[in-house]
Amino acid sequence: MKKWTIDATHSEISFSVKHMMISNIKGSFTSYEANVEANEENLQGASIDFKIDVASINTNNSDRDQHLLSADFFNAEQFPYITFTANDIVKKDNDYELTGDFTMKNITRPTTFKVAYGGKGTNLWGNEIVAFTVAGKINRQDFGLTWNQALEAGGVMVGEDIKITLELQGTPA
Description:
Elements: E1 2-6, E2 12-19, E3 23-29, E4 32-38, E5 47-53, E6 57-58, H1 62-69, E7 81-92, E8 95-104, E9 107-122, E10 128-139, E11 158-172
Antiparallel strand pairs: 1-4, 1-11, 2-3, 2-11, 3-6, 4-5, 5-7, 7-8, 8-9, 9-10, 10-11
């Protein structure tokens, strides 16, 4: 197995959530650390963990970002990181199922993500690269993100399910 460094310039951790029951708000986290030890074409048995800096949230709206960092949502001052530690990765057809401990606001729940191998190649500097897409969803209320507001027409301001996508490109460490 090789140790891999995630290339932050060519990688992204993003999310989306329903807003007012009709549209999606998207955002990303721009600061994170990852430890990945895996075979490049067979992820079974890989060691994977992520640590995301909650304060790096970016939804392209600074007022919304500040509200998300407050005690109403992430409470970033008290809970500055979101973490994930893989427990198991199993090949399913052409993809993988990655299961591990997802922790947010000091609440840990088992969570499963789908992992698609994008391929390998060589970048412009002659370095080996690999790419993966990791996708899944969590229920925000399971992690203590319970703030919401009822709408006059029925429904709520913020949806429960958060879709999470990681577009990752790595190079050997």
